[in-house]
Amino acid sequence: MAISGQKQGNSGSHKSVQDRLLDAAEELFSEHGFEGTSVREIAAAAECNIASVNYYFGGKDKLYTEVWRRELLQIRNARLKSIELVMSESGGEPSLEDLLRSFANAFVGPFVDENRSRRFMKLMAREILDQRVPVNMFVEEVVRPTMVAMRSPLLKACQGLKESMIPLIIVLLAGQLVHVVHLKAMFDRTKMAEMSAFDLNEAVDHIVKFSAAGIRACAEGKTESEGG
Questions:
Q1: How far is Cα 192 from Cα 206, in angstroms, rounded to an integer?
Q2: CA torsion, points 57, 59, 60, 65, in degrees to nearest 10?
Q3: Measured between alpha carbons, how far is 160 from 93 in angstroms, rounded to an integer?
Q4: pTM given for the model
Q5: How far apart are CA 47 and CA 40, in angstroms?
Q6: What is the DSSP secondary structure assignment for residue 34, as one 8-state letter?
Q7: Strand ranges (E), 73-190
Q8: How far apart (Å, rounded) are the C-alpha atoms in residues 190 and 178?
Q9: Maximum C-alpha span of the chain
Q10: What is the pLDDT of residues 135-157, one digit of tens each?
Q11: In this predicted model, what pLDDT tens digit does every residue of 155-179 receive, in sequence order?
């Protein structure tokens, strides 16, 4: 199953005032940061009056939070849908590789669209440097639901796996995927000749195989300390 990007609904004049404000704010926040973006600029880009920001969102701070909430909900829903789909297609008995690949494809899907990827990664970089989104929002909107949804499928796909290992497994899988997405973006920008053939689908396939082998080894108790 190849990685595919997600379409973002209707565009232009078909969008509601709230969506136009969110789109404009996301673009401007990613380019100029929170402090470097004014309410006037957001309203102008969204073709709305300035008062609409307060009316719909209660100010720039809450608008910024809602920009992130929208991103997080899209990310969460894509991942949960991928888990539901692989469980349905497998009759509730997925292979470990199919489960991990479905999750991985949903994870990197938003980064396939080059424009969206560039914007989101800029937004993420600015948020890391100047944290404004409540940490608990990310945990509650994305991390916890994903871990809950993956728990039972992972236990079915890998017999002998300890439930206590699942949070770390998901964190490490996500870490590999984030890293490869960042590298892909870096190589694309620098046009490194040595990495001209870097393919995201191929990278995801390697991560899936590597992770599946590691998870099975852990489930079977084949740790380095036990290997002698």
A1: 21
A2: -40
A3: 15
A4: 0.79
A5: 10
A6: T
A7: none
A8: 19
A9: 70
A10: 899 899 999 999 999 999 999 99
A11: 999 999 999 999 999 999 999 998 8
